[in-house]
């Protein structure tokens, strides 16, 4: 215990009392907290425990933004929380959490964690295990950014702040807790998170926090691809994806680290297309309309697929097999750095494979596409290509009218078959009853 205390003092400074901001000094009212989060804090407090709303929810409420979810941190052990909360379940193996369920709300409850380092990768310095229970001071010290280390007590409506997070919010800056180099080595994802928060909140990254990012960017290669995907998805679905991508490039996090971003930013032919895709995604999110991650990733990777497709055709491959092979090539290349789930890649392939099929507007083929489950997504993708100048605008307009038209209007829109196109000969069905089964044919003598 003495060694752990000394280590914490050396790493994060001597213990000090937090700044306490009463209700008059912030804009968070008890009613701003969800019913579930309030109830968790009330129940745990009634059993003699400390419990606070923490993290992004407090940050957003301080900025006047309603959070999507609420987390609670407490000095109660997971088993104690589970015992006191009637509808709850324990999750996790190395570090247990509790999910308390209230109708349509799930509140994640964590026990205060210590800042003592666990198992560390000797080559990169990345923390592989850090699962020690501790005090609220420890818990605040091990959080990533000062704005995420704020603790709100619904009973007193007080915000507790150990690392000047409130001051940083007022100055509109993202500042990491502790030595930036040490904290980025512990978890390189924090570099991506700093950029995501700065883009989402329109903040600046504090100079000392920003200084080592470009130099340490390659450490992200040591992070499991699934974690990189999760962080990228949060950024792309934040409502500020276009700004986020620009900031990633400005901080040097795009080149050679995430091939996905190399594709986005270093292909002139696709730059306008991707900019439009990100802009439309941001608009849909701000208008609270649904967004398909598969559609977004299909847009981001389209020009890489297109280039691979044309290259295969140039080597003499037939169009359709060349397209499907190009899809697999691109997705295989991305898997090493960005583990896009199979449920998304299947939809992405359907959207891509529809694009050449839209070019055929004669005969019965357009009617066949009306039954395709991804028709709407495929058409929206075509419209995006047309808006960027990649596909003919007339083609996208024709399909809009065809999809929205009546059966009579669709029949008038269908183009005649090109001259010289051979019709497939159908085998005529045999009329009359089939001959009775006469057994196997006789064996002919030699």
Q: Supply the helix-strand structural class.
A: alpha+beta
What is the total domain count?
2
Give the biggest beta sheet: 8 strands, mixed
Strand content: 5-15%
Itemize the secondary structure elements and their pairings:
Blueprint: H1 2-12, E1 19-21, H2 35-46, E2 51-54, H3 56-62, E3 71-74, H4 78-84, E4 88-91, E5 97-102, E6 105-111, H5 136-142, E7 150-153, E8 158-161, H6 165-171, E9 173-174, H7 180-186, H8 189-201, E10 204-205, H9 207-210, H10 213-216, H11 225-236, H12 241-250, H13 259-265, H14 268-286, H15 293-314, H16 319-335, H17 342-357, H18 365-369, H19 375-387, H20 393-404, H21 407-413
Parallel strand pairs: 3-6, 9-10
Antiparallel strand pairs: 1-8, 2-3, 2-7, 4-5, 5-6, 7-8
Describe the structure in your own words:
With 446 residues, the protein is of the alpha+beta class. Helix content is 49%, strand content 9%. It has two domains: 1-171, Beta Polymerase, domain 2; 184-357, cca-adding enzyme, domain 2, CATH 1.10.3090.10. It is built from 21 helices and ten strands. Strands 1-8-7-2-3-6-5-4 form an eight-stranded mixed sheet. α8 (189-201) packs parallel to α11. The longest helix is centred in the last third of the chain and has 22 residues, at 293-314. The radius of gyration is 29 Å and the shape is elongated.
Features of this protein?
cca-adding enzyme, domain 2; alpha+beta; Beta Polymerase, domain 2; two-stranded parallel ribbon; 21 helices; 446 residues; disordered C terminus; eight-stranded mixed β-sheet
């Amino acid at each position: 215990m003495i060694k752990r205390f000394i280590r914490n003092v050396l790493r994060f400074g001597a213990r000090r009392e937090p700044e306490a901001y009463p209700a008059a000094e912030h804009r968070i009212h008890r009613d701003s907290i969800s019913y579930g989060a309030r109830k968790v804090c009330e129940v745990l407090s009634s059993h003699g425990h400390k419990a606070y709303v923490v993290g992004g929810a407090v940050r957003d409420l301080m900025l006047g933004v309603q959070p999507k979810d609420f987390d609670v941190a407490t000095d109660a052990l997971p088993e104690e929380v589970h015992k006191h909360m009637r509808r709850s379940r324990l999750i996790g193996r190395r570090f247990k959490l509790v999910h308390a369920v209230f109708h349509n709300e799930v509140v994640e409850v964590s026990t205060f964690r210590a800042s003592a380092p666990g198992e560390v990768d000797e080559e990169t310095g990345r923390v592989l295990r850090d699962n020690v229970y501790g005090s609220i001071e420890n818990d605040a010290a091990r959080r990533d950014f000062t704005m995420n280390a704020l603790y709100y007590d619904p009973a007193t409506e007080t915000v507790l702040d150990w690392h000047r997070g409130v001051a940083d919010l007022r100055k509109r800056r993202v500042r990491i807790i502790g030595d930036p180099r040490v904290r980025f080595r512990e978890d390189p994802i924090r570099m991506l998170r700093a950029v995501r928060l700065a883009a989402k909140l329109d903040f600046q990254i504090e100079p000392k926090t920003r200084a080592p990012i470009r130099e340490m960017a390659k450490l992200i290669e040591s992070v499991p691809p699934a974690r990189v995907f999760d962080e990228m998805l949060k950024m792309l679905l934040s409502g500020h994806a276009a700004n986020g991508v620009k900031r990633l490039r400005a901080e040097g996090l795009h080149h050679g680290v995430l091939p996905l971003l190399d594709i986005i930013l270093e292909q002139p032919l696709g730059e306008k297309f991707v900019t439009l895709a990100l802009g439309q995604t941001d608009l849909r999110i701000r208008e609270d309309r649904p967004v398909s991650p598969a559609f977004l990733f299909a847009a981001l990777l389209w020009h890489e697929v297109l280039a691979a497709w044309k290259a295969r055709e140039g080597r003499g491959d037939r169009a359709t097999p060349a397209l499907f092979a190009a899809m697999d090539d691109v997705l295989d290349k991305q898997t090493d750095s960005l583990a896009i789930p199979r449920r998304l890649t299947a939809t992405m392939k359907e959207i891509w494979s529809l694009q050449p099929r839209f070019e055929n507007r004669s005969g019965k083929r357009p009617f066949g596409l009306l039954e395709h489950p991804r028709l709407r997504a495929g058409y929206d993708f075509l419209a995006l290509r047309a808006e960027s100048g990649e596909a003919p605008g007339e083609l996208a307009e024709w399909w809009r009218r065809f999809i929205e038209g009546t059966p009579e209007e669709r029949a008038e829109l269908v183009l005649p078959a090109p001259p010289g196109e051979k019709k497939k000969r159908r085998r005529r069905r045999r009329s009359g009853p089939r001959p009775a089964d006469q057994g196997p044919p006789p064996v002919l003598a030699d």
